[in-house]
Write a structure and sequence with these properties.
Elements: H1 13-24, E1 27-28, H2 29-42, H3 56-59, H4 61-77, E2 85-89, H5 95-106, E3 112-116, H6 120-129, E4 134-136, E5 148-153, E6 162-167, E7 170-179, E8 182-191, E9 208-211, H7 213-229, E10 231-240, E11 250-253, E12 256-258, E13 268-270, E14 273-274, H8 275-284, E15 288-294, H9 295-301, H10 304-314, H11 319-330, E16 339-345
Parallel strand pairs: 2-3, 2-5, 3-4, 5-10, 10-14
Antiparallel strand pairs: 1-7, 6-7, 6-9, 7-8, 10-16, 11-12, 11-13, 15-16
The chain binds S-adenosyl-L-homocysteine.
S-adenosyl-L-homocysteine binds near residues 41, 47, 91 and 116.
Amino acid sequence: MTADDTGASAEPLTAIFRRLIGTYGPLSLLHYMGESNARYYADKDPLGTAGDFITAPEISQMFGELVGLWLADVWMRAGSPVPVHYVELGPGRGTLARDALRTMKRVGLDPQVHFVESSRALKALQAQAVPQAQWHDDLGTVPTDVPLLVVGNEFLDALPVRQLVRTAKGWRERMVDWAEDRFRPVAGEKPMDAAVPGVLADAEEGTLLETCPGAAAVMQELSGRLASQGGAALLIDYGYAEPQTGSTLQALRAHAKVDPFTAPGEADLTCLVDFAVLAEIAVKEGATWQGTVTQGAFLRALGIDLRAAKLAAAAPHHADTIQRAKDRLISDEQMGSLFKVMGVSGPQWPQGAGF
Ligand code: SAH
């Protein structure tokens, strides 16, 4: 990604996009979303009530603790190999890592910590939460010779998507144009039929196919690493486990959905993660796909009810807050069903709990 990392003092992204469109014509949605999110994340902390959205580890410490428990359990059943490295993709404020590492340490698992992070602002917060971490721009520089315990929560959904749309003239890429004083999606000129699976060749006009090349690339590299180095990964995100069509692009600002084509770089652009395609990639790279389950089912299997009861017993005046946080994480009406947890591991590693 060609991140414009000069931050808020830089030329507004709207002006840059307008100039590009004026010179070269409509931009691909992939480019628009990639640049917008690079700008969005570069210099601010978008998490929490004062920000734009809230994530599971920020809702309750139980989330990171249970993720840590899952990793510790597979690690022990793999024979407790040492050294082992903890790798987190897009660690946000470092909260998940801090909670997971604390839990892992209780059972004697004390891995080296690697964070894959692009945001300057968030790196600074991560350094406060987990001072011993080492930072990377991507997985490429993470050591290649030891087993990896990998976590990514709400990382893949921030990576840019490409959209193809079926028009009367065939499949076209969805582009972003500037017209009548605003950005708007339009169908590109170039035929894209060759990029679409055969079953969709004659799909109804208006059918939309979304793919995320960045997520596919991360999955490919990660799976190859797990296959050759050993280890296990949990990828957690809102997404779908069966293939589907339609646009899932959305923009969040101050906890409300806003138009993704207004004020690029100032709202968080996300898409649902296609877990079906990620599982295929994992298997193709020689890793074991352990399964994709709902967040609610996963956290229940890991013992969230017991953990919540224990926390509430230790702090009775917080019992209501703990109960509400638990509901938020696991109830079907909140994060429980929409969010999925995918487990992937090296072929010699044991099946983890909850899959
Ligand atoms: N996992 C955290 C934060 C989720 S927000 C949590 O659950 O709270 C998305 C995270 O991914 C942020 O840390 C963001 O800076 C990072 N990120 C987004 N795009 C990235 C990219 N292309 N490369 C590296 N990190 C990225």
